[in-house]
Write a structure and sequence with these properties.
The protein has 6 helices and 10 strands. The chain is of the alpha+beta class and 196 residues long. Strands 2, 3, 4, 5, 6, 7 and 10 form a 7-stranded antiparallel sheet that branches. α1 crosses α4. It is globular, with a radius of gyration of 16 Å. The model has no long low-confidence stretch (mean pLDDT 82).
Length: 196
């Protein structure tokens, strides 16, 4: 695969995540029984070190929701939150941050967001994507992302989706990452009709 993504490839990714955002807003609205707005994510394809710097700093403690993906392609979905974002997200969900029930609620939030984007990829590509139950990881940002990177990751590149959740005027902005195994981004583009 090429070292960088073309404008066409990035436009295709943006369209996929735009569809995923609409699905996520609808699912979250049902969860919290309030109107939810999910902004169209900014999609960036970055090396792991660049992703850490962008979300960073790497030594910051974060809470991450880790969702393994199997089926027609192997990948991981991660939702990463710094403490202020975690606190707002838990408040929006009506739970206390740092507690077992808070972590459970964040896992469900990550599951909804991840499933929405995976569903969009699946619908547009015809790929069957199965997500495993979400797990919570509590560690420094660099450690969480490094541990999550599969041994056969696609040249350590990740798709970073940045969007803002807004519920009843309150906002939080978790970072969502899609980390494909080697060759799988190329398969997605091929299914979407993007020339190699």
């Amino acid at each position: 695969m090429a070292d960088t993504y073309t404008d066409l490839e990035l436009d295709v990714l943006r369209e996929v995540v735009n569809i995923g955002s609409s699905k996520a807003a609808s699912a979250l609205s049902t969860l919290v029984d309030m109107d939810v707005d999910v902004s169209t994510p900014v999609a960036r394809v970055l090396a792991l070190t660049e992703a850490i710097e962008h979300i960073g700093p790497g030594g910051t403690d974060v809470t991450a929701v880790v969702i393994p993906v199997s089926g027609d392609l192997q990948a991981l979905v991660l939702m990463v939150m710094h403490p202020p974002t975690e606190a707002v997200a838990c408040e929006l969900l009506g739970v206390e941050a740092g507690t077992d029930i808070g972590h459970s609620a964040l896992a469900e939030l990550g599951n909804i967001l991840g499933a929405s984007y995976l569903g969009a990829i699946s619908t547009l590509t015809g790929l069957e994507l199965d997500s495993s139950p979400p797990e919570i990881a509590l560690d420094m940002l660099a450690a969480v992302l490094t541990d999550a990177l599969p041994a056969d990751a696609d040249d350590d590149r990740v798709l970073l989706l940045e969007s803002t959740l807004s519920v009843a005027g309150r906002q939080c902005s978790p970072a969502l990452l899609f980390i494909p195994a080697r060759g799988n981004v190329g398969e997605i583009f091929a299914r979407l009709g993007v020339p190699a």
